[in-house]
Amino acid sequence: MRDTDKRPDPDALLDMVRREEEQKHRGQLRIFLGMAPGVGKTYAMLEAARLKMADGENLLAGIVETHGRQDTEALLYNMPALPRQRIEYKGHILEEFDLNAVLLKRPALVLVDELAHTNAPGCRHPKRWQDVEELLENGLDVWTTLNVQHLESLNDIVAQITGVRVRETVPDAVLERANSVILVDLPPEDLRQRLTEGKVYLPRQAEWAGENFFRQGNLNALRELALRQTASRVNTEVLVYRKGHAIETTWPTAERILVCVGPSPSSATLVRAAKRLADGLQASWQALYIQQQAEGAPTARALSNLHLAQELGAQTHVLTGPDVARLIVEFARQHNVTRIVIGKPLGRSFFDIFRGSPVDRLVRESGEIDVHVIKGQDPGNAPRQPPVRRARSFPWREYAAAGGIVAVATGICFAMYPYFELANLIMVYLVGVMAASVWLSRRVSMAASAVTVLAFDFCFVPPRFSMAVSDVAYLVTFIVMLLVALVLSAMASRIKGQADSAAKLEQQASDLSDLSRDLATTRGADNLVAAARRHIARVFGATVFVLLPSPAGKLEHVFLAEDEETLADKDLGVAQWVFDNGKPAGLTTQTLAESDALYLPLPGTEATLGVVGLTPENADALDALELPDRRRLLDAVIQQTALALDVDRLEERAKATLLAAEREKLRAALLSTVTHDFKTPLAAIAGSAESLLALGDTAASAVRRSLEENIVQEASRLERLVDNLLRIAALESGSAAPDIKLIPLEEVIGSALDRLKPLLAGHAVRLEIPGDLPPIPMDEVLMEQVLLNLIENAAKHTPPGTEIVLSAAVGDGVARIGISDNGPGLPSGDPEKLFERFQRGDRTTTAGYGLGLAICRAVVKAHGGTITAGPTARAGASFVITLPLYA
Amino acid sequence: MPDTTHTILIVDDEPAIRRFLAPFLEAEGYGVIEAATGRDALAASQDADVILLDLGLPDLDGEAVLQALPPWNRARVIVLSVRGREQDKVRALDLGASDYLTKPFGLAELAARIRALLRREGTAGQEPPSQYVFGDLAIDLAGHGVRRDGVEVHLTPTEFKLLAFLVRHADKVVTHGQLLKEVWGRHSQGQEHYVRIHIHKLRQKIEPDPARPRHLHTETGVGYRFVTMAS
Lengths: 887, 231
Description:
Chain A is α/β, with parallel strands linked by helices.
């Protein structure tokens, strides 16, 4: 399915947008590219930097290697330079570039020499180019120097040309993403001249072997490489410009390249070749490793090849199955691959004679997909079998089981021998082979097939109990029997392998769905984290810890396994870095690989939500983490967890917003209540006074007296209101804790009644307080306020002549104080609502219920008691306060 | 001048309010009936010429009382409320109340509002006059003419409709909504800025000092009132 559409590719446009977006925040990278050491890259960089410095640019020489050359050192004069960090490693003091110091200083431009440098162990990143990446991501501009032979994809070519394999490599992506590349060129003759003058610093490694590297031919080739690299970069820029501006032109068809890697070291060459092909075609590419045995994990070598592909920008995949060619073609079709890159087979196996080698079959079955068969190079000095093969013990147990199966089959045959023909015995043996193939590995079951034929020959074929065969026809029987056994075992193993990988997929799917079910039914960050930790620990065999940030962005809340102590500062540091940068670090990654845990960020929609750490419990779990499919599963699990956390966070935020809105509504209600409660007495006072003035001497003395009383009463009502407001404010702010003493109740009631005397003039007040009532623990001032409010309510909301009863009793460790009346009763609705502050709002106003009852409840609560309202037996209203007798 | 021909109903659940209103109104010469609840108020409303209605009542909300009154009776209501919110006033006025006062209020103000209301009531049965003279302002509703100091003032049709409506409801608060409905039609709800702009132009034309109007008073947040007697 080739994309022959000539429209601008939306992916390309999106990619441009993303690129531009990134560019806005990213620092600018300028690379001074040279063909070999000694061409003057550092010198060129410093010279340019001096010009910048003259313009007043805030630059910092992060690390510059002058190798003692005086003219270079002269350029450093007066330039702000960063002291190197000193790292102790195996008794040596190593000096390294101090990444943290630069990030703290935040200069506009940093000079970092020798991009390909490998950092000493203990630095944050193993490679200097990773330090540079971090600087760029933090928005700092970086200038750096690079020799062309350090580019990853050119590694093989340079090794071919010069015979020197460079170990320090830089991914091509770094060069591709650089904002500008400056080629520092020097004719090879001049460079050799400088070399003889001793102006070129050479590292002391043997690989440089001095003169050898700097042969005229080598230099010419390297120069060509450098020039080409720069030219192809310029070409890319033109392309980017075209894509963005949609100039009418032919669009390169969307090519997708698939490279099939194996465990052999030559696969690395294959990977690099695919990378070059992909670059040339502007294509995306993927690397696929096919594991033929169903059991076990890919070998370390295969993984390192996959890693290399990933570093060079490929997506990596691992599939399991015996039929390599079919799997490759299926994968290629699924992923719309247009070209397959595969290595030339190094030998032929027995089966290839019948079926053709995998490569032959791939070429046959691939249809419209191009197949590039590339010679695996450089296998000579490396063993074909990976040296770091996982130490797998010889499967004694399986062979023993196979032997057992053959023995059992032989036993049965002995029992049958007198009654059945030999052909029937063969069937029994074949059943045994079937059983072996289903239960045991392919290799063992094939061995069992051979042993079966031998056992049959030895035990039953005349002459019995000898390997000799009397009738030549039996030889044909043996061959047929062996072939049938082998085919049977091959088919059974394949079915088993398919069942195994299906079971594995099924397991992964069920792990994921288990997790999502758990997360979906869980609320609250703590519980979500606990659920995720449980799952990850179970599925990945690791101790899992999770760190969540404080609002300030510092990782604080740590969730550890029960038996673990706190995290070390060093681990916290790694976690914080992961959180700040949103990238994984630690075990199996390129960053801080020395730590013993893998740290993964939890990506949220707005920001990183936290960090998950995994400490594998054993070597197997660690190996499993390296497998691409396990990593994808882990990523999916992390994504799900992050999503759940994100949803939870948003819910929390919505809740908080709702709460704030409620509070706002309450505040409005308070304002309205206070307005009402204040304005009514004010209106009465002002109105009465004005009436008095207006009426003057003409007023009857009774009218006059009534108006004057009105003023006095309303003024004291205002006073009580102010009192209430102040108290409720004090109680709410916590500045007024009740001052609890043992107080005789009648004292408080007496004082309250006294203060309310004018209001109670029209009401009958009856006291039902036993003479032997013990003193009750209370704050007398606050409780007087409560009684005042309750009695005032009773007086105000009942017609004159109503009886108000104050009662008290002690029992069950509490004192009960009741205020009841035989008036019209409480307003309809839930009596409990009366106590809710300002519940009354501004529509259904019943004057005075607003603040008074709210403060009553606040005070009684502060005493540890309760207050309830309800109807009395006589249809009036009744309020009951209980106060605990013992604190 | 005692005016015993009119009876005033005071509806307020606060005894303190009734306690000073009653003697004052009696001294003004009105007959006074008191009611503490909405139900009592509705029962007594037939006998009253003016109803002083508190919006916050224990049993029925003041607005419910207003709605329970027959529409022609609502015009006799002056709302007394502590509710400072303008939308409450607007709602009461839109329901048909004649006027409103916010507690605490001045008694002289109250007396003036009651007199204005009674004056309108007094002329309610008669054919409304088409000629009005307010000080130096002469308005001829039938002839669509307005004169200030004897000089013809030119008004646009909209301005004239606006002025005519205000004059017909002189001394009464008219809400933005009522003006919009009357002058612009019922589909113009929410377009209060129409009213503001035209009132502004009207003031420029008929008021000597538009910033301190003598007739076209603003009731902030509620509407306008055409005051007949310049104070």
